[in-house]
Amino acid sequence: MDYALQQLLNALAFGAEYSLVALGLAVVFSIMGLVNFAHGEIIGVSAYSVFLAAALGLTSPFVAVLLAVGMAALAAVVFERVAFRPVRYAPTTTGLLTAFGVSIVVQNLFMLLISPKPQSVSILNGLNQMWFFGPFAVSSLQVMELIVSGLTILALVLFLNRSTLGLAIRAAARDFATVRLMGIKANRVIATAFAISGALAGIAAVFILARRGSVSPDLGFGLVLKAFVACVIGGFGSLPGAAVGGMLLGFIEVGLLVALPQEYAGFRDALTYAIIVALLVYRPEGLLGQRIELGDKEI
Amino acid sequence: MLKVEKLVVRYGAVTAVRELSLEVGQGELVALLGPNGAGKSSTINALTGLVTPASGRIVLDGKDISHVRTEDRIRAGLTATPEGRHIFSNLSVGENLRLGAATRRDPAGVRQDIERFLSLFPVLSERFGQAAGTLSGGEQQMLAIARSLMSRPKLLLLDEPSLGLAPKIVARIFDFIGELKAQGLTLLVVEQNAKQALRFADRVYVVSSGTLRYDGPPARLADEHGLFNLYIGG
Fold it and tell me: How far apart are CA A30 and CA B82, in angstroms?
């Protein structure tokens, strides 16, 4: 029982983390058609900010969390302003290559200016403790991860449904030109989407730092690949799809970890992707994506 | 109120609009007629700034807005209901109307205007919380026009309000356009359906192949049958 509960919590926590990062990718993709592979470097900027602040004498974990989220949002907005805005109307592949370019440049900056080796960050370690509920021992970090992700998604849903800017982001996902006809500034809508995307990455960065206790230049890259997969599962560009896809990916991974005997553990990733491929054969547009008819044209 | 001088719109090697000049005076309803592909929608898109003209001047209330961004043109009092309606189908009817008022800072006035349109179009009231994509074509057109009016424009550009709608519904939409004119709104209506567009028009421009072919009162256009048939048909 204890073991089952622990694994369920594991799956939920992994899923929540994938969901946060996948939502960040999806919110930008939905309005710009840009797959932002530099999203992982936003997580990197966030983590290195905490590392530098701690090195300069910051001791408050609370301030560290605010710094991580704030710097991530700022980094996302700066990436958009400097790198993505000039290629906004270029073909999709240009945006994709630009994102890879930003990713490589920023990773190399981390290596040159700080170090290619992992750097220890202990300021957030306090978040990761064991809590005991009667006979059950659970990781405080996983519980927080679940609660914070849930609240964040709730806040995002409220923002997208209640505020004018949120409505504009949802509308822009379908028809950007008409959003501009409402007198809403395109730059503002896009900058807000990037800021949201960055803040979500920053929240993920806090949990990664608290779990690993260290930061390295390639910190976010692997996670963004996972988030990309989560988006594909859910249906690219669909926000509910990204959240559901992230959760599902967490459950598949942990499920296989539990189900596979030790000697087959090496097949875990292969099986994960086999399941996803099977899912996409059944639903090529993803779980919650919209089927795009080939040859169809928006009027 | 609106003055367009020698507007040229090009898409690559194709010239869609050739040195088009037109004027819309305060309180007027001006119809811009022409067959499919005549450059009417390109003209509208150049007026809203969604397309950048190759050359020419656009003057609104004496101010040259040729290089002003779309968003700021809307804030200056010009707005457009695009061809094909372009309602936000994934948003509810109410959310569509709210976005139409995005430039306004008077929440009480916005609520009042929403109430006004809901009583004007009861079907929008019934479907207030539903996705706008579930409305019929005619209802979507009503919503699209109401959404444009939510910004309280001085000048409304209507691009093919009759497109894809049944004749009875087209007549109702033009009744409403006539009411808007009676209330003092200035309108530029682009149409292929000449009969409806001429009901309330003060003046008419006819374009074909991007060039102006006629400029004058609707009565004379109807008289000159050759011209009418040649460019508009029927």
Answer: 22
For chain A, 299 residues long, the average pLDDT of each consecutive 10-residue run is 84 95 95 93 97 94 96 98 93 94 96 95 89 83 94 96 95 92 94 97 96 92 92 91 95 92 88 91 86 48
Q: Look at the alpha carbons of A212, A218, A220, A226 in this order and tell me if their dihedral is positive or negative.
A: negative
Q: Please name which of B193, B101, B105 lies closest in space to residue B151, comparing C-alpha atoms.
A: B101
Could you tell me if A146 and A16 are in contact, meaning their C-beta atoms sit under 8 angstroms apart?
yes
Do the chains contact at A167 and B82, CB–CB below 8 Å? Answer: no
How confident is the model over A26-54, as pLDDT tens digits?
Answer: 999 999 889 999 999 999 999 999 999 99
Give phi and psi for B32, each to the nearest 5.
-115, 105
Query: Which amino acid appears at position B34 of this protein?
Result: G
Domains of chain B: 2-231 (3.40.50.300)
| DSSP string across A235-264 | -TT-HHHHHHHHHHHHHHHHHHHHHS-GGG
Query: What SS3 state is found at A139?
Result: strand
Q: How far does CA B9 lie from the centroid of its chain? A: 18
Residue listed under structure tokens 């990761």: A128
For A189-219, letters b (16+ CB in 10 Å) and e give bbbbbbbbbbbbbbbbbbbbbbbbebbbbbb
The shares of helix, strand and coil residues in chain B, as percent rounded to the nearest 5, are 40, 25, 35
Cβ atoms of residues A240 and A284 within 8 Å: no
What is the phi-psi region of residue B3: left when phi exceeds 0, alpha when psi lies from -120 to 50, beta otherwise? beta
Q: Kindly list the distances between the CA atom of residue B8 and the CA atoms of B5, B38, B47, B78, B211, in Å, as whole numbers in the listed order.
A: 9, 13, 11, 20, 10
Q: Which residues of A touch B (CB under 8 A)?
A: 164, 167-168, 170-171, 173-175, 177-186, 299
- Cβ contact (<8 Å) for B71 and A186? yes
